[in-house]
Amino acid sequence: MITFEGAAKLYPDGTVAVDDLDLTVETGQTTVFVGPSGSGKTTSLRMINRMVEPTGGAVLIDGDDIRGRDPAELRRSIGYVIQQAGLFPHRTVRDNIATVPLLLGWNRSRARARADELMELVGLEPSQAGRYPHQLSGGQQQRVGVARALAADPPILLMDEPFSAVDPVVRASLQDELLRLQADLHKTIVFVTHDIDEAVRLGDRIAVFRPGGRLAQYDTPENLLAAPRDAFVESFVGYDRGVRRLSFFPARDLSLREDVVFGDGTPVTEAAAVARGKGEPWVLVVDGDRMPLGWAAADRLDRAPAGAALGSLDLAPYGHTFDVGADSLRAALDAAVLSPAGRAVGVDSEGRVAGVVTQDDLGTALWSVAE
Ligand SMILES: Nc1ncnc2c1ncn2[C@@H]1O[C@H](COP(=O)(O)OP(=O)(O)OP(=O)(O)O)[C@@H](O)[C@H]1O
């Protein structure tokens, strides 16, 4: 547990970088510091490893004031990852990762074996061990940075905008990797970003900083999106927070309709009668394995040649599907919005159709979330 007790940083030029910060970072969780530029996130983060000394208040780790700790020894027990990785350019990937173990006095072969193990953990190829940082992509360099920070298995990991310098696709995969790693390792992670989406994705808890180095709100991602404390937090989390909040609700609670799903061998007349009877403007056509083929508009069914099967019609693309067991309400809504039929196709983990969600069903689910 890391505790900020009235921590403050006043620079000699009069800048208040951090103002009276009271905050507890829970052990084994990911806590994200988010806020606009200059709001004191990095300064607060660096107080934890004594790269910045507070001018007021204190920072405690597991109840002990860190002013009682030797800074060099403290830093060896806290992993630190920064933007653009900050790797040593003249050391190989393996030697970069082995830095802290070697400082701790491990022998070379043990440190290198640890480096190889970590490369695998963060998704780097063994063949990259002998390369130099400039021979890697930005995303690979960040992976090396994470591996280096984890090398001595520190209980605390500080990450200062570690993924900001890479493109959005690589960034998303680095975020996935971090979530996967954290599910195994349960480190106490403090992560700085100015990107609220990254914060919501990664954080168990989020501290929103406001200009002047003050804490605006400290909450779970879900509560932050549901109930921003004031106008500043609301504008910072974004006015589309309602839709983004849907990612916290599972799609599995949606009611799925199977009565408008038909095999491709079904006679058009049969599907038309069902669609007419239920007042459904679209039916979904699937193959023998229940894989989706496309939508058929009910009014076109009436005009199809007598005796035709659904599979012989021109079908509208079914668009995105959502995984009923794994995805969120947000994914289901997205699938419906992008579907030419305005309906979402729910599938199982194998991609087989589980059912269709109509706008009415989605509307009901959205209302229940709002309650
Ligand atoms: N050495 C320094 N001397 C004077 N002011 C400083 C110093 N270091 C940081 N500051 C100021 O302290 C404030 C907080 O800076 P900090 O880097 O903590 O913000 P941040 O929220 O991490 O911003 P960013 O997202 O841009 O990295 C800023 O106004 C910054 O200019």
From TrEMBL:
<dbReference type="InterPro" id="IPR017871">
    <property type="entry name" value="ABC_transporter-like_CS"/>
</dbReference>
<dbReference type="Pfam" id="PF00005">
    <property type="entry name" value="ABC_tran"/>
</dbReference>
<dbReference type="InterPro" id="IPR003439">
    <property type="entry name" value="ABC_transporter-like_ATP-bd"/>
</dbReference>
<dbReference type="InterPro" id="IPR003593">
    <property type="entry name" value="AAA+_ATPase"/>
</dbReference>
<protein>
    <submittedName>
        <fullName>ABC transporter ATP-binding protein</fullName>
    </submittedName>
</protein>
<keyword id="KW-0067">ATP-binding</keyword>
<keyword id="KW-0547">Nucleotide-binding</keyword>
<feature type="domain" description="ABC transporter">
    <location>
        <begin position="2"/>
        <end position="237"/>
    </location>
</feature>
<dbReference type="InterPro" id="IPR046342">
    <property type="entry name" value="CBS_dom_sf"/>
</dbReference>
<dbReference type="GO" id="GO:0005524">
    <property type="term" value="F:ATP binding"/>
</dbReference>
<dbReference type="InterPro" id="IPR027417">
    <property type="entry name" value="P-loop_NTPase"/>
</dbReference>
<keyword id="KW-0813">Transport</keyword>
<comment type="similarity">
    <text>Belongs to the ABC transporter superfamily.</text>
</comment>
